[in-house]
Amino acid sequence: GGRIRSHVPLRSASAAGAMAAGFVRELERRAGPALRLEQRAAGGVGCVVWDAALVLAKFLETGACPLAGRRVLELGAGTGAVGIMAATLGAEVTVTDLEELQELLGVNIENNKHLVTGSVRAKVLKWGEDVTEFQPPPDYILLADCIYYEESLEPLLKTLKDLTGPDTCILCCYEQRTMGKNPEIERKYFEV
């Protein structure tokens, strides 16, 4: 298994306040240099690399799912760790998240583009809304730690149904949480 290192802040906000303070998370790969993923100290759950994303990214590296030349869509991509890893394994990847995460996704794609052997682009996708531009159905849909807000469960399930074709494989990695309503939310997700 690879070691995971966190680094101290590299950049502080400019006088204009253009960027929140960020810090880099390195994700080592079996072959070649580590991915370098910027995170944000402020900005919500999408701004850091969560453990479930690390686990799913490392799983993709095992080769259990052949990714070279496959169409891959990541939902709730956040920093883009999982999708960018898939792109380094030859997949044609679209990482998706809300508008406010697009700048961070763009930075991380740019910082790691020299490692990509497939392709990777970032697009806005709000769960529950129209997915026509993401058709035809991808070969793989990737989700890391997307099951925790009850209010987002129905829109997420709608998006999954709308995106999934007969040959689509969904890879979902999440941290089991025992607090509050999380067990009930997980149960609802897996009932569908």
Explain what the structure shows.
This protein has 192 residues and is an alpha/beta fold. The protein has a single domain, classed as 3-Layer(aba) Sandwich (Rossmann fold), CATH 3.40.50. The protein has five helices and eight strands. It has helices at residues 51-61, 81-88, 102-112, 150-163, 182-191; strands spanning 4-6, 22-27, 35-40, 71-75, 92-97, 119-124, 140-144, 169-173. A five-stranded parallel β-sheet has the order 6-5-4-7-8. The chain has a three-stranded antiparallel β-sheet with strand order 1-2-3. Helix 1 packs parallel to helix 2. It starts with a strand and ends with a helix. Residues 1-21 have low confidence and may be disordered.
Q: Which CATH first-tier class would you pick?
A: Alpha Beta
Provide the CATH topology: Rossmann fold
Number of strands: 8
Residues in helices, as a percent range: 25-40%
**Helical run tally:** 5
Strand order of the largest sheet: 6-5-4-7-8
Query: What are the secondary-structure elements, in order, as H or E?
Result: EEEHEHEHEEHEH
Query: What percentage of amino acids are in beta strands?
Result: 15-25%
CATH superfamily descriptor: Vaccinia Virus protein VP39
Distance between the termini: 33 Å
Broad structural category: alpha/beta
Number of domains: 1
Low-pLDDT stretches: 1-21
Assigned CATH architecture: 3-Layer(aba) Sandwich
Sum up the overall morphology in one term. globular
Please tell me the overall pLDDT: 82
Largest sheet: 5 strands, parallel
Please tell me how large the radius of gyration is. Answer: 16 Å
